[in-house]
């Protein structure tokens, strides 16, 4: 269905104004030192359609650290490599626990609950790495994101990667713990190096909204017409985003926004309105579950005002 550009433009501009005026902005992620320096007063939004048309407002051209949003792209790549055998290493159930929790790993014998919690994304990264040098695996992830966004300028923010590499004890604990169950195939530090670097990819709202379009349009990248995944796989990735994309805030996100979404601790959220649009919002302040506070509110207003929901 073609987007009513006029209507979307006025709603997006209205929401950006409302978000600018709000004083409740959440807390910027403090556990990655480089992210704690980001100004919480920023807000951006971009909506991309199947023609590559982008409707944007606020700080939509400012690059931010996409962090866990890359887990959507690494999952897509890993499914391309391993198909459904991926599900031997990682589950498909919501965790009901924080994104960096270790508690379920012992009960579930090192198999992470889903590919979006840190443990799951580290296991997925390990699968992408199999048999390659870390630099090659990272190059493959970055090129894939550049391809789906149709933008070769997307880069890794090396300062963010180095900052997390220095302070990533929790992720190291998760990775070594999984290794003890035989889940990790590569040297743990190699897998973590690739993981920290793909989390540090920087994108603007515009680039991220464009990158999400294959999920909104049945697996096809509309600017090139190339198939990224088949429609069934796109539907399944969307299902995982809906059920697990916001960690223990996933139920609330589905309730309020009504769309599949994936958050990152950089304050970005990618949301998919199947058949209608791919949406990216960014505001660095987070809520208690580690998801963008104003980003979620903005998406709730957007879907309410435009009547977008999968339900
Ligand atoms: O591994 C970490 O903790 C970060 N690189 C990514 C976590 C994240 O983005 C969780 N999302 N809300």
UniProtKB/TrEMBL annotation:
It comes from the Bacteria. Keywords: Acetylation, Hydrolase. GO terms for molecular function: glutaminase activity. Substrate binds at residues 68, 118, 164, 171, 195, 247, 265. It catalyses: L-glutamine + H2O = L-glutamate + NH4(+). InterPro entries: Beta-lactam/transpept-like, Glutaminase. It holds the Pfam family Glutaminase. Its EC number is 3.5.1.2. GO terms for biological process: glutamate biosynthetic process; L-glutamine catabolic process. Homotetramer. NCBIfam families: Gln_ase, PRK00971.1-2. HAMAP family: Glutaminase (MF_00313). Belongs to the glutaminase family. This is Glutaminase. It comes from Plantimonas leprariae.
